[in-house]
Amino acid sequence: MSKPAELLPGTVDELDRARKACRSMVRRRAATSGGLTLVPLPGIDIAGDVAMLMELIPAINRKFGLTPEQIEQLDTTHRVMVYAMLKKVGTGMIGREVTKQLVLAALKQVGVRLATKQVLKYLPFAGQAAAAALSVSAMIYLGNSHIDACYDVAKGAIRK
After folding, report:
1. What pLDDT is stored for residue 85 in this prediction?
2. Per-residue b/e over 104-126, b at no fewer than 16 CB within 10 Å?
């Protein structure tokens, strides 16, 4: 029994292309996140980050064939391999419905950066620039960490 070709990338080259496309998505979202820090309304940047991550994480999962729907469409052998790799990698946002609670838990990983950003954004010029830089780096860190986890899961599943 074979898996549907469009679900899980079948080769390391396909995985590398998916990773490259996802990193580009992360960079675009990170730039937007940095721009949101310049909006002088309290909390708008955090709300924007949550909204962006709730779109970005499922998009990354989809590129790697790791949404819940895509995993369920795999044949039994591949599905078992994916779930085994998920357990090994230990991530909470692959193969699951991405909720606000999951995104907030991920944002807690970079909580110190985000708290610092909230304070810095109200300092003229240098503080705003530092807040934007922290926002960009936090989004890149979260996005690239998720890409790396998806890559590891998909690579482990195709190698087995």
Report:
1. 84
2. eebbeebeebbeebbebbeeeee
Would you state the pLDDT for residue 129?
72
Structural element, H or E, at residue 154: helix 126-159
Spatial separation of the C-alpha atoms in residues 141 and 47, rounded to whole Å: 18
DSSP 30: H
Q: Residue 144 is which amino acid? A: N
Whether 8 contacts 78, CB under 8 Å: yes
91: region left, alpha or beta (phi > 0 left; psi from -120 to 50 alpha):
beta
pTM: 0.80
Structure tokens at 99: 């909720």
Model confidence at 4, pLDDT cuts 50, 70, 90, reads: very low
- The residues spanned by each domain of the chain are 12-159
CA distance linking residue 61 with residue 39, whole number of Å: 30
User: For 130-140, what is each residue's pLDDT tens digit?
Assistant: 777 778 888 89
